[in-house]
Amino acid sequence: MSLTNKQERTEGKKQYHIHLKPGDIGKYVLLPGDPARADRVAKYLDDAELKADHREHRTFTGFYKGVKISVTSTGMGCPSASIAAEELINIGVECLIRIGSTAALQPEPKIGDLIVSTGSMKNEGTSKFYVPDVFPAVPDFELTRTILDTTAEMAEELGYNYHYGINATDDAFYGEDEAWLKKLSDLGILNVEMESSAIYTVCHKRKKRGAMISAVSGNLVTNDVIYETENEGLIKGWENEIKVVLEAIYRFEQRNLS
How many CA atoms lie within 13 A of 78 on its CB side? Predict the structure, then answer.
């Protein structure tokens, strides 16, 4: 019996979920969860063009200092994020950088701070289809180092605080009870979000580069959370992380061309 090889059937063609084809994207793609944040990124790109808007996946492509860059929203959680990553790789992406929101699990990070991920604790089911549980989920070192260096250099100019460390990737937003959050915090986990470990795993398997920078939406240890009103600090954090990551991509591209 011959079983379908999904990668072979879809590589280099118009993609089923993201509705993109080869040539629609740059080799660098930013991955916010919320489609509305794809619009937020697009305003920083020259000649930004909407390439697709299907399901949770909205994509713009444009240029930053001459570098072709795209943004594709993933939706929430590892399953849809891994699908977006796989299909973007199928049509030529080389570097996938998650941008978005995260909740802090240590006392220091405040709303609007930026956090650069150095690895992810895999508390989700998607990566188990790719690698054993004991296999680590880590971002690309060179790309992450460039993002972290750029974050540090732009902090004074843009007026934010930043942190770096290991995050957790969880599946169930409302399943994170106090005992679970305390366990993560006691392990020294810096923050928690819902997509990065799957993105790192897909990138490793497909021999591409993955990374993440995120803005702090709230602190689950100090109980500094905002659920019912507009989170102005987080919005500023989104804007700052976009500025940082675009500049980091430009620097990374220049370094690799020289």
Answer: 27
- The domain total for the chain is 1
Distance from C-alpha of 191 to C-alpha of 120, rounded to nearest angstrom: 10
Would 215 be classed as within a structural domain?
yes
Domain hosting residue 249, numbered range: 6-257
Question: Alpha helices of the chain — where are they, by DSSP H?
Answer: 6-10, 35-42, 78-90, 141-158, 178-186, 196-206, 232-257
Q: Is the pLDDT reported for residue 2 higher than 80?
A: no
* CA nearest to 181, candidates 118, 103, 126: 103
The pLDDT of residue 258 is above 80: no
Asked whether the predicted pLDDT for residue 1 surpasses 90, the reply is no
What pTM value is reported for the model?
Answer: 0.97
Flag whether pLDDT at 148 surpasses 90.
yes
CA atoms within 13 A on the CB side of 84: 38
Q: Does any domain span residue 104?
A: yes
Q: Give 181-224 pLDDT, tens digit per residue.
A: 999 999 999 999 999 999 999 999 999 999 999 999 999 999 99
Residue 59 and residue 25 in contact, taking contact as beta carbons nearer than 8 Å: yes
Is residue 1 situated within a structural domain?
no
Q: Report whether 225 contacts 219 (CB < 8 A).
A: yes
* 129, part of any domain: yes
Indicate which CATH number applies to the domain containing 154: 3.40.50.1580
